[in-house]
Amino acid sequence: MPMTKKNRVFSALGALGGMIASIASAQAADKVTYGTNWLAQAEHGGFYQAVADGTYAKHGLDVTIVQGGPNAANSALLISGKIDFYMGGPQGEISAVEQGIPLVDVAAIFQKDPQVLIAHPDAGIEKFEDLAKLKTLFLGKDGYLTYFEWMKANFKGFRDEQYKPYNFSPAPFLADKDSAQQGYLTSEPYEIQKQAGFEPKVFLLADNGYSPYSTMITTTQAMIDSKPDVVQRFVDASIEGWYHYLYGDNAKANELIKKDNPEMTDGQIAYSIAKMKEYGIIESGDSLDKGIGCLTEGHYKAFFDEMVAIKVFKPETDYTKAFTTKFVCKGTGMAMKK
Question: Domain SsuA/THI5-like spans what residues (predicted)?
Answer without folding.
Answer: 42-243
